[in-house]
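Box S2. Input/output pair 1.
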Amino acid sequence: MLQLRSIITLHVCGYKSETNQAQPFTNKVYSLSFSLLISKKMSSFSTFGLSLFISLLFATIFTIEGKPFQSPPVTVNITNALKDVNNQLTIHCKSGDDDLGVHQLSHLASYAFNFRPNFWGSTLFYCAFDWTGSSHYFNIYQDLRDRAKCNDTLCLWIVGEQGLCMFDYKTNAYDICYTWS
């Protein structure tokens, strides 16, 4: 049995030498590797069929909604929970790429926005929170901190005078709290 080392991109490549024997090879562009054991008696059609099957398998695993290596969309929902029902909350959220604009929230009103976290896990959205006599900033979404806490797709926040609290899907309560600094 001969060993063929291949690097997966989203398809499998084979290489045969002039003696028609499988030769080990590498491609330094990607780092996900695997090994296949191929019998000398395996026909070209069988090799092609196996390669096609593995290609489709990896394409399915690494593709979401037809786009490779994309995370599912996340929604961040922020609710004004200030005690004074007449106090409007002004929110201005941004990322390194997007300015989501200024939004005014009356008591118990919510503002939500959607995005796709990047493949590297470094997605960050930060917001300014202003109301009568107060002004604060907070990183409303940090991928490594929040993805699992947000149940992968929905982050629920309430904003109060003392800070913000995120909904905890394990306890079904807004008990992941951060005080204003």
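Box S3. Input/output pair 2.
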Amino acid sequence: MSTAASSRARVPLFSRPKDLAMFIYFISHIPTSFLIDMVPIYPAVIYPYIQPLLRLNEYYVENFRDPFMGDKTQVWYHTFLYMELVFQLPIFFYSAWALYNNRRSAYLWICVYSAHVVTTVVPIVTSLHLCKPHQFPFTISDEQKQILTSLYMPWVLFPLWMLYESFNQVRRGEQSALKKKRK
């Protein structure tokens, strides 16, 4: 263990409300990723074993009219899902662990993750509102677009807040390190 890490007393997670909110976000997003988000990219060979997940996905697409989750031809969208699998999911695990253990290193990864997720969800919401009706696999009413927007927006707003908080933590850490270096 490094001297810096060992010299800092571990502050319980429940005493750090912002970290607790981020911890809950990452912990809750792990099963959400596996059980909902990534279903469209699972290989067909495992479909017999994941029938409940496929039905849940069908239910979601039918009831919420999400053109991205329901259209396998949206390569750009599925690229975002693969990025969630190979890039975001490891960050969920690491960030949850690091926040729980009060590791400053969490904030840099949260900053990177937050910037990434905002830049993936904003194009989804923008496409939802700016694409022409013929570009979707089925008809979507303006009311359905608003409902979908309300479902996607927490993944813009909360990561924006995390980006702000984690960036400030990284900046404070750098300023503290500079002060120590000057002494």
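Caption for Box S3: Confidence is low (pLDDT under 50) at residues 1-7. Residues 174 and 180 are 10 Å apart (CA to CA).
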